[in-house]
Structure formats: C-alpha cells, structure tokens
Amino acid sequence: MTLERRDLLRGAALTGIAAMLPVRSLAATPLDPIAAVAPELRAAARQIQAMVAAMPPITQAYRTMRAGPQPPPATDIPYVERRIPGAAGQPPVTIYVINAKPGTRRPAILHTHGGGYIVGSAKGSVLQCQDIARQLDCAIVTVEYRLAPETTYAGSVADNHAALLWLHANAATLGVDPGRIALLGESAGGGHAALLALMARDRRSVPLCAQVLIYPMLDDRTGSSRAIPPFIGKVGWDAPANVFGWKSFLGQAPGGAAVPVAGVPARVRDLSGLPPTFIGVGSVDLFVEEDIDYARRLIAAGVPTELVVTPGAFHGFDAVAPDTGLAKRFTAAKIAALRRAFGSDGTPT
C-alpha cells in the first residue's frame, strides 16, 4: 500500500505533538477537554490523548524525542542541504533550500519549525515546506536553528537571522525576488518568526513582505504567571510543557519581571513597522489568548493584520486532522495570506 504525502505529514504531526506532551492525569481537569473540541476534531484529539498515555513527559525525554521518525521528502520538488556562515562569533548554520529555480524571480519563504523551542527539526519540515512550495511556486529556506536548553534564545535567533541574511544576499542565485520574502513558522517556529521580524526591523537588515504566524508561541507568561481557563490547552501543548519550553529557551524561569524582552515577542512594547501579518490559532489552543492579544497590538500599531481563530481547534489540529473542514479552511486562509503578500492573487505588493 502506498502512503500519500498527506498521510505522512499527518503521521509525523501526530508523533511530534504527542512527543511534546507531558504525561498527566486528566481526572483533575474540571471539564472534559474533549467536550470543548469541535466534533469533527474529537477523533484526532482522542488519538493524541491515547498516544500521550504511553509516552514519558517531555521534561525527561526531549533529547530522545529529537531522534524520532521523520517524514521522507517528496521527489518532485528539489531540495538541498547547505551549511552557511552563522552570525559573528556563532557556529555555521544548516539550512534546507527547497524549490530554488535559478534564472527566475519568484517569491520566497524563510521557515522556522515548531517544537516548543526544544524539539523538532528543519529536516523533518522539508516535506511540509515542499507542499507549500508546490502550491505557491516559491522557494523556501527552512532553518536548523539550535535548540534549547543547550542554546538559549540569543543563539537560535542569531541562527535564523543569519539564514535570512543569506537568503536575501543569494536571491539572484536562487531565483528569488529580494522584495518578496516572507516569514513562516508554526508554534515555537511562529515565535521565532515573530522574533526574527522584530530583529529584521530593528537592524534594518532585510525587508519582509509578510510574517505568517501559525498558532505562535509568543508569551512566556501563559501558564506560568498568567492563569488560563480550565478547558484551554488540554489537547496538544499544555501549560506544564509551556513552562518547561520557555524556561529552556530563556535560560531562566518564565513569567517574572526579569525575563529578557529580547526573547519574548509579547513583551516587546513597540510593534510598529512590522510587515503585514497573518495569525491563525484554534479557540482551545493554549496560545489563543496571547495570539489574539498580539494581533490586537499589531493592529493598534498600524500593522495590517489578519487574525483567524478556528472554533474548537486544539494546537496542531491542521497537521493531525488535515482532511477536516476546519483544517482545510484554516490552511486555505494561510495560503491565501501568502498569495496576497506575494502579489500572486492580483493584489499589488
């Protein structure tokens, strides 16, 4: 039997999400977490819960989880692994360049993968990026940034910025229009994309046509110093995992007044001058409140912003249940946002 690319992506997503979840008892939850999930997503939610029950907590096994299975890349969209110079004083950075076409002038995406800042890989994201490149006829560079806790935010953000600078500097060789480069990231990758957009703005390094943030991990206070409703964040990434992820990323306990602003997008006061933004999140995702608030602040800062909140959707729902109507509409909105940013929908850039 031949597996479709969609099945491979879904299987990898299920494994990745389950791997990020600490084992805990749902009996202590006042409300049944499944009851808050949209009916068409409940089968996937139960599947995640069943997988979680057989796995160790991420605080104990995150290094082992990094060596988990990864979906094989597609054969119809070319990709190549490259080692590029890192930032000053930093080691080289591994990137995967997908769908480059020298001699053309097409849009490009700088992609940062998810994984709570502590797991996940660019290599494991190649198949997902190939699918996006196929739909948009664009080039994509996905970054193998260094993971926490071995490297805190300063190192991984530097890796991503080095990759962005490389993409922009090599635009002509890759067949890329340097004026149509967007950022894309999911979960912790969305947090990284937001930090990268801020760094590019502050350093005036690379002009960006968009940042597309998919259920981004933006605020260390969620689940630490800020309480969340009892039915939020119970399927997928939860509050204990979030605290561990942020502690690893920041190198200190999250939620306090001494947390470095440079590592937390939601703590940055001035959001003006950022590129047009798309934020998508589910209504029972742990990050829903922080994502809505970030969108509100972007709008108040004069940044063109689209916010999509999918009712009853948990963290990573679009990856583990891609054939549901909710996931299809969510993904279509993401792709449409990128088309607009690239001007390929007829909208002037």
Structure description:
- With 349 residues, the protein is α/β, with parallel strands linked by helices.
- It is built from eleven helices and eight strands.
- It has helices spanning 5-19, 42-53, 58-65, 126-136, 153-169, 171-174, 188-203, 239-250, 288-300, 317-320, 325-342; strands spanning 79-84, 93-98, 106-112, 139-144, 176-186, 210-214, 277-282, 305-310.
- Strands 1-2-4-3-5-6-7-8 form an eight-stranded mixed beta sheet, sandwiched between helices.
- Helix 1 (5-19) crosses helix 2 and helix 5 (153-169) crosses helix 7.
- It is globular, with a radius of gyration of 19 Å.
- The termini are far apart.
Q: What letter string, H or E per element, gives the SSE order?
A: HHHEEEHEHHEHEHEHEHH
Provide the spatial order of strands within the biggest beta sheet: 1-2-4-3-5-6-7-8
Mean of all residue-level pLDDT scores:
92
Percent strand equals 15-25%
Q: Please give the largest β-sheet.
A: 8 strands, mixed
Return Rg in Å.
19 Å
Low-confidence spans: 18-29
User: What gap, in angstroms, lies between the N and C termini?
Assistant: 44 Å
Q: Strand pairing plus helix content: what structural class?
A: alpha/beta
Q: What is the count of β-strands?
A: 8
Q: What is the share of helical residues? A: 25-40%
Number of helical stretches of at least 4 residues: 11
Q: What is the general shape?
A: globular
